[in-house]
Amino acid sequence: MNENMDGYWYVVQIYTGHEKKVKLNLDNMIAREELQDEILQVNVPETEVVEVKDSQRKVSVRPSYPGYVLVNTTHELGPHVDSPIGQRSWALIQETPGVMNFLGPTSHPSPLSSADVEAMLQMSTEEEEAPPVPAMEYEIGDKVKVINGPFSGFPGEIEEIDMEHQRLRLSISLFGRSTSVDLGLLEVEELN
Asked: I want to staple 45 with a disulfide (CB 3.0 to 4.6 A). Which of 89, 124, 126, 184 is the partner?
């Protein structure tokens, strides 16, 4: 991803859930109209999200700002600008399927400050560096309930925590005997 801070950056409001489709439509329009020197990039900032479905840990990527894309241009855009290419690019983006409008006053799109652009792009790259970790904090001695596998439904007490491999060792009482079981972090839940 070319993260160039030069030029003008605009936030374009689009139909939520159509981020990739609108990016593709805009990229195709830019290629067709040969505007690569004017519209430098269309960016959909994304964030990694950890979901737990059917006790399975799944990492998915979602738009950081659903319903919006960032557009980086060489010139200022809008019907009010002096540059004919800025006017033409504004009109073409407005007419792209899935695009609702530019953020800012209707006839005067407002470019973002470089700090805002950096913050929006930073959010999407920062997440990729560190592997996502489930938002749960356990301590040795915590009481938990197993929610997956052959011991599902059994209460247990945490004996050991291995955050690097996202594993727990539990002490579970089976037939009056204490048994050690090694489980993944997402195979247990806190006992309320």
From this structure: 124
Q: Is residue 1 part of a domain?
A: no
Give the single-character DSSP code of 96: S
**What is the residue-wise DSSP string for 110-174?**
PPPPHHHHHHHHHHHHHHHHSPP--S----TT-EEEE-SSTTTT-EEEEEEEETTTTEEEEEEEE
Residue 50 falls inside a structural domain = yes
Contacts of 101 (CB under 8 A, 6+ apart): 12, 13, 94
28, part of any domain: yes
158 and 119 co-located in one domain: no
Block residue for tokens 């593709």? 24
Query: Are both 76 and 154 inside the same structural domain?
Result: no
Q: How far apart are CA 117 and CA 43, in angstroms?
A: 11
Which DSSP helix (H) or strand (E) runs through 76?
Answer: none
Q: Are residues 54 and 114 in the same domain?
A: yes
Give, for all 192 residues of the chain, the pLDDT tens digit: 445 568 999 999 999 889 999 999 999 999 999 999 999 999 998 888 777 777 777 888 888 888 899 999 999 999 889 999 999 999 999 999 999 999 876 668 889 888 888 888 876 544 444 445 555 678 899 999 988 877 788 899 999 988 777 888 999 887 778 888 888 888 888 887
